[in-house]
Amino acid sequence: MDAHSSSFSSFSAYFHALSQTPSRLSRRAFSVSTSFDEMTTTRSTSGVHMQRTLRWFDLVGFGLGGMIGAGVFVTTGPAALQAGPAIVISYAIAGLCALLSAFCYTEFAVDMPVAGGAFSYLRVTFGEFAAFLTGANLIMDYVMSNAAVARSFSQYLGAAIGISTAKWRLHIPGLPKGFDQIDLIAVAVVLIITVIICYSTKQSSVVNMTLTAIHILFIAFVIVFGFWKGDWKNFTEPGDPKNESGFFPHGAAGVFKGASLVYLSYIGYDAVSTMAEEVRSPAKDIPIGVSGSVVLVTVLYCLMAASMAKLLPYDMIKKEAPFAAAFGRWKWVSNVIGGGASFGILTSLLVAMMGQARYMCVIGRSRVVPAWFAEVHPKTSTPLNASAFLGVFTAAIALFADLDVLLNFVCIGTLFVFYMVANAVIYRRYVEIGSTNPRPTLSFLCSFSLTAIIFTLMWHFVTPGKAKTTLLSVTAIVAIVISLIFHCVVPQARKPEFWGVPLMPWIPCASIFLNIFLLGSLDGTSYIRFVFFSILAVLIYMLYSVHSSSDAEKAGSLCVKNREVPELDSNFKV
C-alpha cells in the first residue's frame, strides 16, 4: 500500500480518517468476504502458504489432546452431585450436543479450509464487524484459559510427585490477592510449547500424539481400576440412607444440570477447525477428525464417570478433585491420576495455543489487526509472529494471575462463538448474498433465539412446580413449531458441494438452543467480562480496524463481496 494513502501515515491522516468513521463503518462493518477470496487473495497476505501435512489421524489426535485436559477432573465432581450415578448419561448428552456443534464447524471447514476457524466463517456470513467482535472475545478467552491451564499444571504435577504447589511459587508481598503468587513453572511450560508450535505443525502433531497416547494410558488405568475395585451397588445406593437413592436420584432435571456442567469438558474441538488449511484432503479428513475425536472423547468420559460412580456413592463424591477422592484409599493411585492429568494439561495447552495463533493469523489477513500477525515463516510454514506474540502474552498472564481469577474470565466467549457459528451455518444455507432475501432467515434466527432465551430464563428463575413444567413445555413446542414452519416455507439457497450438516435446520437449531441454555448457566462475573471486552473490541474496531481494512480495500487487498464465487483453491483436494 502506498504510505501516503494510509490512514496511519501521519497524525493529520489519522484524524482525517477518524472524521470518515461513519462512512467507513457503513461500508466495512457488514462487508462480507467469500470462500474463494478467503482461500486466495486474503490468504496471500501471509506470503508463504502453510504446508498441507496433516491427515485425519492427526486431527483426531489434536481433538483428543485438546478436549481431554483438566476439565474432566474438575467438572465431574459438581456434576455428579447434581446427576448422581446418572453422571454417565450427563456426559453422553453433553457429548451429543458437542457433536451437533462440531457438525456446524465441519461444514464450514470443508467448504473453506483456511486457518481462521470461526472468524472466517462469520466473516463470510455476517460481515467484518461480527467476525471481529467474536474473534476478539475468542482470542481473549483462549489466552486467559491457556494461562489458567498452565497454572493448573503445576498443581497437578505437585500432586503427582507429592510436593505442595506453595513450595515452588514465589509470594510477592504488596501485590493484590490473586496476583501475588509467581508461578515460574507455568511460564516455562507456556514458552516451551510456544517454541514447539513455532517450529513445525507436523512435529507439533507428533508431540501431541505422544503425550495424548501416554495420557490415554493413564485414563485407561483409571477406568479399569475403577471397574475392578468398585461395587455395582453404588449405582443405586447412596452413602447416607437419608439421601435420594436410585440411578436418577434427582430425576431428569439433575441429569440435564449435570450435562450443562460437564459440557465445558468438551471445549477444544473448535481448535481443530483452525488447522483446516494444513490438512491434505479437507473433504475426507476434517469430518473424520473433528467428529471422530468428539465421539471417542465421549466414550472415554462416560467410562471414566462410570468407574468413579462404581467406586464411591454419589453423595460421597467430593466437589473438588472427585477422582482423587474416589481413589483416595490408594495413595499411589492418586499420584498416578495427578501424573495423567499433567499430561492431559500439556496436550490441551498445545492444541489451544496452536488454535489461538491461527485465529490471530487470519484476523491479521483481514487487516483488522496489523498484517504482521498474518505472516507465515518461509522455513517453518507456521504463523510464527502470532504464535510468539500470543505465547509471550499468555506466559506473562500465567506468571501472576491465580487460577481462580482466570477461571472467572473463560467459557462465555467460546460458547458465544459456538452460538454464532450455528446461526451462521443456517444463514449461509438459506441466503445467497445478493440474490436471496435474507429477512425470512434473519427473522427465524432472531425468533428462535428469543424463544431459547425465554426458556432459559424460566428454567433458572421460575419456581419449580407444575406451572414451570407447563411453561417450559409450551416454550419448547413453540421453538419446534417455529423451526418446522421455517423448514417447510423457506427453501435452501445453496447445497454444500462436499460435506454438509445433516437434517438442516434441526441440528444447528439444537446447537443454538443448547448454547443459549449453557450461556444462561454462567455467573454474572462472566457477563461483566464479556461486556467489558466487547466494548473494548468495539473501540479498537472504530479507532483502528475499520480504517486499516478500508485502506486495504482501497489498495485492492480487500473487497466488498455480494456473491459467492464457485472456484476453489488449487491446493484443495477432495
TrEMBL record:
Its main location: membrane. GO terms for cellular component: plasma membrane. Keywords: Membrane, Transmembrane, Transmembrane helix. The keyword Cell membrane does not apply. It is a multi-pass membrane protein. The chain crosses the membrane at residues 59-81, 87-108, 120-140, 182-199, 206-228, 248-269, 290-312, 332-355, 384-401, 407-430, 442-461, 467-486, 498-520, 526-544. It holds the Pfam family AA_permease_C. GO terms for molecular function: amino acid transmembrane transporter activity. The keyword Transmembrane helix applies. It is found in: Membrane. Residues 499-549 form the Cationic amino acid transporter C-terminal domain. Belongs to the amino acid-polyamine-organocation (APC) superfamily. Cationic amino acid transporter (CAT) (TC 2.A.3.3) family. This is Cationic amino acid transporter 6, chloroplastic. It comes from Cucumis melo. The gene is LOC103496518.
